[in-house]
Design a protein that fits this description.
The chain is mostly helical and 274 residues long. The protein has 13 helices and no strands.
């Protein structure tokens, strides 16, 4: 009896957690298909569907904003992984004085909130001529994505057998060949984990984009959603906001569900020593 109660309580707790996590997305999807006065009616089950909000969004400049976000987040992830894997190789395989202190210093950068470094970063962006360009976002996003990327890749690379690297060195492989031909095929879980987390962080970022971008044509998705008004949709902007949120959130959910196993493997790398 006690075992059944514990099991029932466990499933009840899991159900509440899932409900709390999934319900906002479900309600956003439900609301995005409403129009007119139905937007302000509280319904928890699907009723009449209208594509008005989606048509209004796709006919405006929102598609261009999506391409801006794809460009920024894609380059951020690519550059972060490239710099991260090379730094991880040095920190995990090359012995030098101050290696642990350097790794802790890199990780400590991610502990600063964005607002704490915003003023200095703004002056730096203006000084190097990147203000009001997508490169300003790529540069600033990498400051916050690189520390986590380097930390996870370094931890994962330390767990790889040293014999693999020694065999490659005996065969005359250079460090670059070892990284690209030996380590990369073995590090897909870590790459998927860091890549997806960096992508999500850059895709959803708002404060830096609001500070460094003043041109409407260069707005990313979070900025575009924030500046949606009644002129964007035929009706209330609330429906357009819900439709835009669904368009940019559902693909991320699908990606996480597809690569969830590799993400778990990457996040738990180094947790068990054999």
């Amino acid at each position: 009896m006690m075992k059944a109660l514990k099991l029932g309580g466990f499933y009840l707790l899991v159900g509440l957690i899932v409900l709390q996590a999934v319900f906002p997305l479900y309600y956003a999807i439900l609301t995005s298909f409403k129009s007119g006065t139905a937007l302000f009616q509280i319904d928890y089950l699907p009723g009449r569907f209208s594509l008005t909000n989606y048509v209004a969004i796709l006919q405006g400049s929102f598609v261009r904003n999506i391409f801006n976000s794809v460009w920024v987040t894609g380059l951020t992830v690519i550059l972060s992984l490239f710099l991260g894997v090379t730094a991880a190789f040095a920190l995990a395989r090359v012995r030098f004085r101050g290696r642990k202190l350097l790794l802790l210093t890199i990780l400590s950068v991610s502990m600063f909130p964005q607002i704490a470094v915003l003023a200095g970063l703004f002056q730096l962006i203006r000084a190097i001529g990147l203000y009001n360009s997508l490169w300003s976002l790529i540069f600033s996003y990498m400051i916050f994505t690189l520390p986590f990327t380097v930390w996870v890749l370094t931890t994962f690379m330390r767990e790889l057998p040293i014999e693999i690297e020694e065999a490659a060195i005996v065969d005359g492989a250079s460090p670059w060949v070892i990284i690209t031909r030996v380590f990369l095929p073995l590090m897909w879980p870590a790459f998927v984990t860091t890549g997806l987390l960096a992508f999500i962080a850059a895709w959803n970022e708002f404060l830096l984009a609001l500070t460094f971008i003043s041109n409407d044509a260069l707005r990313t998705v979070p900025l575009a959603i924030a500046f949606l008004t009644g002129s964007t949709a035929h009706e209330s902007p609330f429906g357009a906001i819900m439709a835009a949120s669904v368009l940019v959130t559902v693909p991320l959910v699908i990606l996480v569900l597809i690569f969830r196993r590799k993400m778990i493997s990457g996040l738990t790398a180094g947790g068990v020593k054999g």
